Amino acid sequence: MITLKPLERLEKKYSFREKELFNNGSSGKIYFDKGDIIKIPYDFSTGILLNSTGAQKKAFNEAKMQEFAIEMGLKFPEVYGVFAIKEEESGKYYPGFAMRYVKGQTHSSLEGALREKVEMQRKAELNKARDLGFIFNDVNTGNVMWCPEEEQTYLLDCEFWGYRTELI
Question: pLDDT band at residue 105, thresholds of 50, 70 and 90?
Answer without folding.
Answer: very high
